[in-house]
Structure to design on (365 residues):
């Protein structure tokens, strides 16, 4: 299932291609993939065709494409891609053999690559595409990431370099045999736009607007506008277990089951530890581990154990090789050697080291 790192890999791969791209044709092959679109599919197609895409933007694991419609519309619009369990947005050449599970086809003329195809591919149809009106962000800052890579994230240099390499690899693969110089210009333009948006000055109008369908989603911990002090205050005010809070997309977004387990293991925190028992310092450590885990996954292209999930080029990520706790039950904890255990959590599982991750006050073993 795609989480923040996987979606960011997809977004970063699409951004240089879609920025300034004109939509020349749209074909809805499976109408179930429009279930979150309020209106008939004719409306979906008519509004998109002739429009110009501004950027590929992500908040948490939500991806959208603000665009300027050919015919003026009452409110600014964005094409929202809900990837669900198995959705992908793949970059294809126009004459490529159609993907078997392609649900929606968008043909675009890209300033960087010329005529290309965006294929919305989804096996299980939990994902969808929708046109949605956008609303201003509450804090007036950029709604999400639209740069070629995560700019201004509080990452270590190593993680940053690893991530940059991953994004570059995607970019390099995309332009193989094509106009690398043109794309580089598009990348630089997008970076300038993002820097402007982060600085709140001269941000393009689309950058500070968020689709209504995404507006209830909190900012993710890699977002330059993530308000850590406020999130920690809200976290400590909860009366719940810490893992449940991490997964609450209204508190912070982009942390799913895998990365929650990995972050809790790294911070040596038991998933059921009451948030009320946390200190601010402990919460800061945990959020730092969340960022580190997300950035490391990003550097490795996301998790690969879900064979359904691939990046824009159809390649899986490799982060599964680096997992310390998630799915590692019975294997030794990389820190202390104790066998990792799996415990029931809501209707899923938690994976943890029973020695490193104790609830404070529990008896030592
Ligand atoms: Zn351990």
């Amino acid at each position: 299932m795609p989480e923040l790192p996987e979606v960011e890999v997809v977004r970063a791969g699409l951004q240089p291609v879609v920025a300034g791209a004109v939509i020349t044709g749209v074909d809805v092959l499976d109408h179930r993939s429009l279930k979150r679109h309020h209106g008939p599919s004719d409306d979906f197609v008519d509004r998109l065709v002739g429009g110009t895409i501004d950027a590929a933007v992500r908040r948490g694991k939500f991806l959208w494409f603000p665009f300027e419609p050919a015919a003026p519309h009452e409110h600014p619009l964005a094409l929202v891609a809900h990837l669900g369990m198995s959705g992908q947005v793949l970059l294809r050449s126009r004459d490529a053999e159609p993907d078997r599970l392609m649900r929606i086809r968008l043909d675009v003329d890209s300033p960087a690559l010329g005529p290309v195809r965006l294929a919305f591919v989804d096996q299980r149809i939990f994902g969808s595409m929708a046109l949605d009106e956008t609303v201003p962000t509450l804090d007036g800052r950029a709604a999400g990431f639209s740069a070629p890579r995560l700019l201004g994230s509080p990452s270590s240099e190593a993680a940053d370099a690893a991530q940059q390499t991953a994004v570059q690899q995607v970019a390099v693969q995309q332009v193989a045999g094509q106009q690398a110089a043109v794309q580089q210009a598009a990348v630089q333009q997008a970076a300038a736009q993002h820097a402007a948006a982060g600085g709140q000055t001269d941000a393009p109008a689309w950058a500070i607007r968020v689709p209504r369908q995404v507006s209830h989603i909190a900012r993710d911990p890699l977002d330059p506008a993530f308000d850590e002090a406020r999130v920690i205050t809200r976290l400590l005010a909860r009366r719940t277990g810490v893992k449940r809070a991490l997964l609450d997309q209204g508190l912070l977004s982009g942390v799913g089951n895998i990365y929650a387990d990995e972050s809790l293991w790294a911070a040596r925190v038991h998933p059921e530890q009451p948030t009320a028992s946390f200190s601010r310092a402990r919460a800061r450590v945990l959020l730092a581990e969340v960022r580190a885990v997300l950035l490391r996954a990003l550097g490795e292209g996301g998790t690969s154990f879900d064979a359904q999930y691939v990046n824009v080029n159809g390649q899986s990520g490799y982060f599964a090789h680096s997992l310390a706790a998630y799915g590692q039950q019975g294997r030794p904890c990389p820190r202390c050697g104790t066998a990792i255990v799996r415990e029931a959590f809501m209707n899923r599982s938690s994976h943890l080291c029973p020695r490193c991750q104790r609830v404070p006050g529990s008896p030592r073993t």
About this structure: The chain has two domains: 4-214, 228-352. Confidence is low (pLDDT under 50) at residues 151-191, 304-316. The two ends are 36 Å apart (CA to CA).
